[in-house]
Amino acid sequence: MLRKWWHDKIAYQIYPKSFLDTNGDGIGDLPGIISKLDYLKALGVDIIWLSPIYQSPFVDQGYDIADYYAIAEEFGTMEDFDALLAETKKRDMAVIMDLVINHCSDKHIWFQKALADPEGEYADYFYIRDGKDGCPPSNLRSYFGGSCWEPIPGTGKYYFHMFAKEQPDLNWENPAVRHELYAMINWWLEKGLAGFRIDAIINIKKDLDFPSFAPDGPDGLAACWKMVDSVNGVGDLLEDLKNHTFRHYNAFTVGEVFNMKEAELPAFIGEDGHFSTIFDFSAHCLSNGEHGWYDAPPISFENWRRAIFESQLKVQKVGFEANIIENHDEPRGVSRFLPAWAQNDAGAKMLGTVSLLLRGIPFIYQGQELGMTNNNWHSIDEFEDINTLDQYRTALEAGLSEEEALAVCARCSRDNARTPIPWTDGPCAGFTTGTPWLPLNENASALNAASQENDPASTLSYYRRLTALRKSQEWREVFTYGRFEPAYEDEPAIMAYCRVMDGTRVLVAANFGRDTVTLRPDYTIKRVLLSNRPTEPENTLTLKSCDVIVAECCLS
């Protein structure tokens, strides 16, 4: 494998609105991020991914971009951004930004011009179609609910949006659109950006006939991803994107890719793939409901383990994936992937160990290193997320009571991951001197960075040891390029695997069950490299509930 600069790096996602506020407006900002760079460096972070900081109306929390060349005033100025780049460079860290180019905001000048002249040049920057007998052109349902088609007032025409109606999709079949987007991407890379996380990118390829599909819900609509599944040719667009932008800067790119066809994996992340890597969502997809969050199944340990094993074995033949426990679009991993008895400090350390030592690029989401959990929500009015509000309505329409619908949202909402970071146990958890834009997690006074900073037994301290192990001179090669091998698959509560390279074997073993488990001695433990136990037991293959060990071993 041709080695790349990003192969052995650890990435950290910042959701700027909830990271740290320095001006008292209740919204995190760029100066707040700059003030915590040493904290991130101590955590072992090499690459910082910023969720959108562009100018936006914030209908979808910044994923509706009104100006790709401007910083939203809520976050600061372009001078602040340039200072962030300079300060990260001093610390040998890199910055990547969110790249949202499937759609833009309806406040973007291109769309405003399209609305002003639905037959003009800018109308072809979007997908504008005539209605059919006074109805939308097809029955596609957006990801956020309702029709993908929004009527243009005063005309018989509609524009297409796969997300919110305020997020019109850009027409990637128009060379002028691609030219504009490529110029913007290169502008940011010229500034010193190291790359991008590319949002919802699989959606850029459309069936230009926009056919209807068999309805899959009582609204008579069909999920828009069915069109994504049915159309071919997205690879041509992605290659065009790469060749006009990323390739020239040796940029690190991570794609948010759902609905990829099985045979396309090498084209996406192979030796010369469309992207450097893509996120592994195999475990997260286990909780997809057939109709929404209200019928989302619980995630069993057996299915979770199988999904990770299958993904690791498949991907290591091709390239690297990016491994996550949680992100801004998912609830907190401790609350989602751990059984009730394991939702504690030991469980958070166990889950983090299993994730960060997999083969691939580890991504830590802000607050994960503290063991943050889902919040307790008392009213639907506390939520800000547009998708959560839609899922609440969907649950009510399916016959759930308001209490039941709220419980569904409390479990599944991505606002769980967007609650402000608790830095201290003081007023507003040290996040702001004002009123936080989203309620603080109710456990912030007990679970915060200050209380964990100097506690060697804290989740934060453990994460620092974990990243240090992965990046150490002795073990960096094994954890970066070592082969992944499942272990102890017949143990129903054990998640275990080996990383193997050039005769070196490291075992990672974790007990997700209630009961103590003694593993058969397939391997002789030479030394324990890391454990979440307070002391090392005599028999290192006896794991109590929530125990995890990382050990150098050899065949018995």
Summarize the structure in words.
This protein has helices spanning 30-35, 37-42, 78-90, 109-116, 175-191, 225-230, 234-244, 265-269, 301-315, 333-337, 345-356, 386-397, 402-412, 449-453, 459-471, 476-481; strands at 11-14, 47-50, 54-55, 67-71, 94-99, 128-130, 140-141, 149-151, 157-160, 195-198, 222-223, 252-255, 277-279, 321-323, 361-365, 483-487, 494-501, 504-511, 517-518, 523-531, 542-543, 548-555. Helix 11 (345-356) runs parallel beside helix 15 and helix 12 (386-397) runs antiparallel to helix 13 (402-412). The strands form 6 sheets. Strands 1-2-5-10-12-13-14-15 form an 8-stranded parallel beta barrel. A 5-stranded antiparallel β-sheet has the order 16-17-18-22-20. It is built from 16 helices and 22 strands. Helices cover 27% and strands 17% of the residues. The protein is α/β, with parallel strands linked by helices and 556 residues long.
Number of helices: 16
Runs in which pLDDT lies below 50 for 5 or more consecutive residues are none
- Give the rounded overall mean pLDDT: 96
State the separation between the terminal residues, measured CA to CA: 31 Å
Which range does the strand content fall in? Answer: 15-25%
Q: Order of strands across the widest beta sheet?
A: 1-2-5-10-12-13-14-15
The percent range for helix content is: 25-40%
Reconstruct the topology from this structure.
Elements lengths: L10 E4 L15 H6 L1 H6 L4 E4 L3 E2 L11 E5 L6 H13 L3 E6 L9 H8 L11 E3 L9 E2 L7 E3 L5 E4 L14 H17 L3 E4 L23 E2 L1 H6 L3 H11 L7 E4 L9 H5 L7 E3 L21 H15 L5 E3 L9 H5 L7 H12 L4 E5 L20 H12 L4 H11 L36 H5 L5 H13 L4 H6 L1 E5 L6 E8 L2 E8 L5 E2 L4 E9 L10 E2 L4 E8 L1
Parallel strand pairs: 1-2, 1-15, 2-5, 5-10, 7-11, 10-12, 12-13, 13-14, 14-15
Antiparallel strand pairs: 3-4, 6-9, 8-9, 16-17, 17-18, 18-22, 19-21, 20-22
Helix pairs in contact: 11-15, 12-13
